[in-house]
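User: Can you help me understand a structure? I only have the sequence.
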Amino acid sequence: MRLPVLRAAFAARAAFGATTASAASAAALIALSAHAVPDARSLVTDSAAMSQLVEAVSYDVMSEAAIGACDDIGADAVPAMREAWIAWRARYQIAPMRVVLTRMMQRRGADAPWDKLVEPMRQRVLSDPQACATLAREWQGGGKDVAARYPQAGAVARAIVQANLVMPITPLPVAAEPARGQVLLPSQVIALTEQRGNWLVISEEAARRKLGVVYVKGRVARDMRRPENFHLQQEQGDRIGGQLIHLKFNAEPWVGREIVLRGVVTSLNRLSMDLADAALVNDASGLTPSPLAQTPLARKAVALRRVSTAPGKGLADKDLAAVVIHGQANNLNGTRWEEDVRFLLRDGSVYGRTEMPPDQLDVAASRRLEPQRWGRWRSAGKGYAMQAQDDDGRTSGDWRPEQHEAVRPWPADARLEGSFSRRSVTGSMITGGTSATRGIRFTKDGRFERSFSAISSTGSLQAITGTVIAGSSHGDGKGSSSTGSSTVSTGLGDVGVSSGTRTKDDGASRRGRYQLSGYAITLEYDDGHTERLLSFPVDGDNRSVYLGTGSYDRDK
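Assistant: Let's start by predicting it. Here is the structure, written out as tokens:
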């Protein structure tokens, strides 16, 4: 049985350039295979066959994105949907194909061709309340027959490996002897650290001497920022652990599965541990739970749409005592200005998540789904004191004085004129980093234009080795572009590469008309989409305005 939601999204990819990306990626992979061994050359250089590999893996990525979106909205069908997806991946051996294609793209120094599929797929599912139940039923019916639809996909992946274009995935050993001992959970990492101390990365041999062989259990999850990095995490219903067990092997075949592993701990701290020299434990019947204390699991983050409602249907003006803000510089790993905005209610409660205007906050849903974002407030001299709540809505800690100050709303049909910007720097001159600026220009006739610019470069540590990589991007109401360059020192001299300038769009998604009223700004973009964001003047003369998640200062 086919999946109409995924199939429709897949067919619609041309609207945002994914079909072109797949063809271009296939062509790029073919170019890389110029030195393929003779028996693999014909298949690896076949553009149609290569496209089948790209399409099959892209379908898997979209499926994973759909499951993530359903999880974000708390769909009851998620467990069944995930299990059916796991079975489908195993049936058609999707994991090896995904590893091969990911490594091929990394070899050419480019993002995977399916990156642009993820967010559109997520939004498609999020916009359809019935999509998750439909997907679950259809996954349980077998999912797409990849072998019939893309018959050459697996063969192409094998040919790429045979041609020595990428290294194949290393099989995970299976523990031969019966498992005996205690099994650790990710939530016990802190207790283990308190018992044994912490250590930075050490060798596997040193890890055996220090702690011996350990058994661990958890669900395999992917680090979405680094596609070949995986970890074990602990989940239970709407709760998830904050500590992770990082896996020092490619765990693609086990994504989504709960597994037990044997290995050695090569790094340990209160946030995580690294597990190396790992083997899969098929029979865990001889293991007993570790007696170490478990750190309580925290509530999963709740998608904003689950606690927001239509404009004017949320928190009523009569129930809102004030909107307050406090800002300070964060100089960890760079420099940026961070602000904390809270809604004070007349009943003495305070809400601490404010991406949406207060008149869109669904108070009842928020109190039920995210009680940890609520607390109590009271006046304290010229300021405020507040008391937090835990994940179960119970009072947590003492009353604390806060530095927040009240702000005023926009008058109806207010207008702004001038340019405002927000700047940040991440990283450092030593390790490399990015300097970014986001801006917005307003005109009194009700028009706006957003802009962004960023410059990234490697740092002095890489420069010592002769490696310098830099890139820049820019976008405004006229369009966007990006450039890149690199210089790498080799035994034969320096090699320089430049990507040139690439133009991406016409800027319609960054310009349009605006409207200010109350604690909101409505942005109607020329490409047809609309945003309604939290907004207010931060000071009395509009030198700084708050937009969405941070304040923008008037340019001098």
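Now, to help you interpret it: The chain has four domains: 4-162, 181-296, 304-405, 411-554. Residues 10-38, 487-498 have pLDDT under 50 and may be disordered. Let me know which part you'd like to focus on.
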